[in-house]
Design goal:
Helices cover about 25% and strands about 20% of the residues. The chain contains 7 helices and 10 strands. The strands form 3 sheets. A 4-stranded mixed beta sheet has the order 1-4-9-10. Helix 7 links the parallel strand 9 and strand 10.
Length: about 210
């Protein structure tokens, strides 16, 4: 079961982005520190839509101003990336190309502005919250059991599975709890970059975080 204690959130990136991550922290695509060399692995159509989709909390701006995390490492986007389900719109990648960034929710909540959702952030049906009293609005059962199927007629489950935690503008690397990779090859590569930058971040191999 992933995120059994409900205390983590996760973000995926291409492992070649690690030097930029260590240099600039995690930033959204419109941030002044955003770099043209950053390798995008998500769906560009969704990214563009979110730039103009308002947060459903007064004076919180647009979703595109935020850095998004999921409550599971095994996101539907990761499934699409590894399986090639939406290729070529979402290019297929090998598992050892993916770096999982894991953060503690309570640490991210110390940053200037954040909110979370009970489903995909830019879906009209999803609600947005900035009070942890509403964390039970998230469908933890489907998230923890990696269940985003709709074969049983629950066509809303994929939306709920994609509940998000979003942080305004940027997340400094001090707020990263650990990094996770698929295998030893990826671990050696990531460790070399960490050592070259004299950065001490916990790095794990955990193939269970990957489809």
């Amino acid at each position: 079961m992933i995120n059994e204690e409900r205390k983590f959130c996760y973000r995926i990136t291409h492992i070649d982005n690690l030097p930029l991550l260590l240099q600039n922290g995690i930033v959204n695509k419109n941030h002044p520190k955003a770099c043209d060399d950053y390798i995008e692995i998500g769906n560009p159509e969704i990214i563009d839509v979110r730039s103009n989709y308002p947060v459903k909390i007064n004076n919180y701006g647009m979703i595109g101003e935020y850095v998004p995390f999921y409550f599971t490492a095994k996101s539907i986007m990761l499934y699409n990336i590894i399986t090639g389900y939406w290729h070529p719109i979402v290019p297929r990648r090998n598992r050892n190309e993916i770096l999982v960034i894991r953060c503690l929710i309570e640490h991210l909540a110390t940053l200037s502005r954040w909110f979370f959702t009970d489903g995909q952030g830019n879906d009209m049906s999803s609600r947005h919250y900035n009070d942890f009293a509403n964390l039970d609005a998230i469908d933890w059962k489907c998230i923890q059991n990696c269940d985003f199927t709709k074969s049983d007629g629950d066509f809303d489950r994929p939306r709920r599975y994609q509940a998000e935690f979003l942080v305004h503008h940027e997340v400094p690397i001090d707020n990263i709890e650990s990094l996770i990779v698929f295998n030893k090859t990826a671990e050696i590569f990531a460790n070399q970059i960490l050592n070259e930058n004299n950065i001490n971040l916990t790095l794990h191999i955990n193939p269970q975080y990957f489809f």
